[in-house]
User: What shape does this take?
Amino acid sequence: MHISEDHAHGHSHPDQQPMSREETLKLLAYMLEHNRQHTEELHDLCHALEDAECYDAADELANAMRYYSTGNEALENALSLAQESE
Assistant: This one.
């Protein structure tokens, strides 16, 4: 079950075996690194938009990157907490 700020919901995947703790940690670490790479790519795109004088689009992309950074921090915290609870 997953609990968010406004609701809780369960997940059922009858044809899949649950991931082991090791698999879960590896996948979370991979996803964090993957997201960091996307953030770097978005940073480059932001500069490209500025170079093309698409300033409003660059500003909006910079705004999106702030969300990515916040999400990446949360992923990093989740990974750290999961590793500490081993």
Remarks:
- The CA atoms of residues 25 and 83 lie 7 Å apart.
